Every structure is written in C-alpha cells, then in structure tokens.
Amino acid sequence: MAVRLPRPHRDDLRIAPAGLLGGLLLWGIGLGMRTSGDPLVLWAGHWPVLLPLAVTAGCEALRRTRPRTALLVGTAAVAGDTVTQGNLATLVMFTDLVYAGVLYSPAASARRVLWSTGLLTVAATLAPLAVWREPEALLIGAVTGIVTFGPAATGWIVRNHREAADAAQLRAEQTALLAEKDRVQAVTAERARMARELHDVVAGHLSAIAIHSTAALSLDDAATTRQALAVIRENSVEGLAEMRRLIGILRAGPAEDVPAATPTLDGLAALVASARAGGLDVELVADHGKVPAPVGLAAYRIVQESLTNALKHGGEGRVRVAVREHGAALSAVVTSSYAGRDAPRAPGSGTGLIGMRERAVLLGGTFAAGPEDGRWTVRAVLPLTGPEGESA
Questions:
Q1: Residues spanned by the domain of 344
Q2: Among residues 174, 189, 216, which one ends one of the domains?
Q3: Are the C-beta atoms of 99 and 110 separated by less than 8 Å?
Q4: Is residue 284 classed as helix, strand or coil in its secondary structure?
Q5: More confident residue, 247 or 21
Q6: What confidence category does residue 355 fall into, taking pLDDT thresholds of 50, 70 and 90?
Q7: How many angstroms separate the CA atoms of 319 and 200, rounded?
Q8: 133 and 276 both lie in a single domain
Q9: Contact 198/351 with Cβ under 8 angstroms?
Q10: How many domains does the chain contain in total?
Q11: Looking at the domain assignment, is residue 77 inside a domain?
C-alpha cells in the first residue's frame, strides 16, 4: 500500500518561488557573493549558481512537512554554493531551513541540530584562528554562527514558547473540564438533597391525609369522620408550612436569610405527637445533648420517614422511637410491627429507604433497615464529629 506524503503548507509554497525569484533577480544583475578569481570558486561563471539556488528553493517547500530532509538537502546545496560565485538568496533560504529544522522537527532532532550548529560555530571560530593566527579569522566563526547557530537558537526559543503556550492551553482546558465536572456534581448533589427534603416533608403529611381520607370515606361514623378530617387539616397545614419553607430556601439569594428554621431534635416531641394524632401508638425515648445541626436534621428526617413508613406499612402495635447519644455518635432506632403487607395503605415513591441511607452515609454514619425479631427496625448511627458534623 502506497504511503501518501503530507502536502506542503500553502505558505511554504509561496516562500519557495519568492526565494527563487529573488535569487534569479540577483543572478540577472550579476550580483554574486564572490568573484571569479576567488580561490574557493571551483566553477566560475553565473550559471553554476542556479543549481544550488533551485535545490534550496525546492527545500523551502518542504520546510514544515519534511524539515529534516529539507535541512539535509539544503545543507548539501549550500555547500555546493560555496564553490561557485554564490547567491545571497541561497544563503538566506538556508538560514530559514535551519530555523524550520529546529522548530518543526521532533524534539530529539531539534536538539541535535542546535548542538551541531553550536559545535560548528565553535570549530569555525577556533580552527581558522589556530591556522592563520590573525584576528580577521574570527570573522569566519561569526559568519558561521549567524548563518547556522543564530537561526537554530531562534527556532529553539520559538519552539519553547509554543510548547509553553500549548501546555498552558491544555491546563486551562483541563481546569475548565474539572470545573464543569465539579459544577455538575454539585448540581446533582443539590438535586438529591432537595429530593430527600421534599420526600421527607411531603410523604409523611400526604400519607396521613390519604389514610385518614380513606377512613373518612369508608366509615359511616360522624365522630370518626370528624376526627379524620381534623387530622387531615392538621397535616395539610403542617405540609404547607414545610413546603413554604423549602420554596423560600430555593428562592433565597446568597445574601438573603432563610425564611424558617431547619428541623432539629427538639422537634421530635411535636413530630411524635403528630404521629399519635394520625393514629400511631408511638413511644419516644430521647437521651442526647446538643448535637451538630446536620446530625440533628438527619436524625429528625430519619425518624420522620420511619414513622411515615410505619403508618403506611406497619401493623397494629406500638412504635418505639429511641434517639440516644453514645460517646461520639448519635443513634436513632425506630421499631414497629411488621405486618408484611402486599400493598401499603397509602401510595409512596419507594425512595424513602434510599433517602435515609443517603443521609447517614453523607455524615459518615451507618444505616440498616429490615425485619428484626419479628419487628421492622430502622437503625442509624451518625457520628457527631466529621466532615459535616464539625462544620455545623
């Protein structure tokens, strides 16, 4: 299979004929670099100058796509030009080939060109001085440095600047990608947090409303209906208050105050009283001191969701809520009768256990829920110190 060589760059295709035309112009007016009587001139006359000129101009077309090949061939051409009367355009184009050989070649080749031109400049300076022992001999080294090492050093400097710019651009792109990733993760985490809050706030009140409205519709008893309607109204009012609080948090700007306080463990008694009004026989055991706000909120929501699940899924019997402080951790345990119903008394989203587990894990705690000794047990252990607890 034939390998297709890269096409020359369009700018190089302009540089090549421009250099050739410039050299032809100098040749046409008879302007050379050396006279025919110069001892270095082996081929006198104007015509021998054209071959190195044409070869060097052809190499200019390959200065980007094949820089090493162009430099090697160009070096041979300029060496041939030194034994003719010479053409300034050939020498100028050669300096550009040296520059391009360092700028566009692989890094190893670029370093070799730089070192080679440096050593050549040193040799061209010291050797003539040692042979002729005249200060004018230093001019040979100066000219050699201008023609070879100067363009190579310039190409190396430009190459380093380009690589630094590319590296800076890559770092900027990586930083932008990481920032976007962090933003997406932050949005996802906030969405999950608000989903947990909405579920915990709405589920309990709406479950109580659904269960008691069903009872009010199915039982033909005025006292029972009146009691159910009272529970429905109480849960509706409390649910609306919680929803207004959450909506206020969502609408509040960075410098605005949160419109209502976040639930704490001090509200467990009122939560249990509301559950009792909803028909649950609840016993509360609380033994704890002041806890960090995130821990208190997590424990409150876990108890709230557990009572909601007991109302929807549990059987007859007492529900026991125990919130105790054990050393550097707070435990919340809720046990209820395990009825094993095929269908709950009120519909749910099915994300309650997931939300409780997420709350515990975010604080570095543990969570478990399931049948235990014939009763449904929810058990959460939340550390009082940690990445979230200490900041509260």
A1: 262-392
A2: 174
A3: no
A4: strand
A5: 21
A6: confident
A7: 18
A8: no
A9: no
A10: 2
A11: yes
